[in-house]
Design a protein that fits this description.
Elements (H helix, E strand, L loop, with lengths): L1 H27 L11 H9 L9 H10 L1 H22 L10 E3 L3 H25 L7 H29 L7 H8 L19 H26 L4 H32 L6 H4 L1 E3 H7 L1 H9 L4
Helix pairs in contact: 4-9, 5-6, 6-8, 8-9, 11-12
């Protein structure tokens, strides 16, 4: 009896230490699995898929993911460049006299633009790699692309916000934007006639709103998808939104690069040094040219 009483405190202490050690391990190895996606709910979702029992967006998401998303992206990256190649061969590059130049963009504009544009391009390229990951063999390369996708998004996000507030006033719709769309910005003609456009033409304004507001939606939905931090059906909805906005972004990114690098001679230079030739400004941004002319800046 005495021996039992003597051992009791040691047994109690051992039990307490074991519990403490267990709690420590629980903290150290805390289970962060999203059981709205994995485990029993995943099995139940598979078992009842397609039976019309109100299983959320599972059926439509699987259908779109399997048959449409990758096919549409593939069509975009093939067809859009081919259309611009045809445009370049038929219409050719717009050329202007490079005499007097006018300061259009400040150093701050240039820095913010490139700090947003470079990571944005990485986001788009890595997004496409992830979309076609199975065709590219999967594995370490695609996982690396996923990590770069997330990192580049974190760099783009703050500069995307700065760019929004920097140019939102100039990107607001104006009546002359309707006339710009009616003549497709003059890009279907070889003649250098005055085009109704402000500091940004209507096409650039569309790109601005898709890249900033659309980009914000991409960051928001992408964060939930990356961390899987929502119920399964919410993640399906976010994935659908992410892909649909992605269609517009890839189309307009290719368009933006074509216009800046190939369609207009020297256009890229304006976002490197901030200057634009007077003739180019007077023709492609005639409304803005008249505005600054009245202010005596020309």
């Amino acid at each position: 009896m005495k021996k039992i009483l003597t051992l009791a405190p040691w047994g109690l202490l051992s039990s307490l230490l074991a519990q403490t050690h267990s709690v420590g391990n629980e903290e150290l190895y805390r289970d962060t699995t999203n059981y709205d996606i994995y485990g029993i709910k995943q099995i139940e979702a598979i078992r009842t898929w397609g039976l019309g029992d109100g299983n959320g967006l599972g059926e439509i998401f699987t259908f779109l993911q399997a048959h449409y998303f990758s096919s549409i992206f593939l069509a975009i990256v093939i067809v859009v460049p081919l259309l611009f190649l045809m445009h370049y061969m038929i219409i050719g590059q717009r050329k202007f006299q490079h005499g007097k130049s006018i300061k259009v963009f400040s150093t701050y504009n240039i820095i913010v633009h490139w700090c947003a544009a470079i990571p944005f391009i990485f986001v788009c390229i890595t997004g496409l790699i992830m979309m076609f990951g199975d065709k590219l063999g999967g594995g370490a390369f695609v996982r690396f692309a996923r990590d770069i996708h997330a990192l580049a998004t974190c760099v783009f996000a703050p500069f995307g916000i700065l760019m929004f507030f920097m140019w939102v006033k100039d990107a607001l719709p104006r009546l002359h934007d309707i006339r710009w769309f009616m003549i497709m910005g003059g890009y279907l003609s070889k003649a250098n006639n005055a085009i109704p456009a402000g500091k940004f033409n209507a096409g650039q304004k569309v790109w601005f709103w898709v890249a900033t507001v659309g980009g914000a939606f991409m960051v928001f939905t992408g964060a939930f998808l990356f961390f899987q931090a929502a119920p399964l059906d919410t993640l399906r909805l976010y994935a659908i939104i992410h892909n649909i906005i992605g269609f517009a972004i890839i189309i307009l990114l290719i368009t933006h690069i074509y216009m800046a690098v190939f369609a207009i001679e020297g256009a890229l230079g304006s976002m490197l040094n901030g200057n634009m030739g007077e003739e180019e400004l007077a023709i492609l941004h005639s409304c803005y040219y008249e505005e600054i002319k009245k202010l005596g800046k020309v």
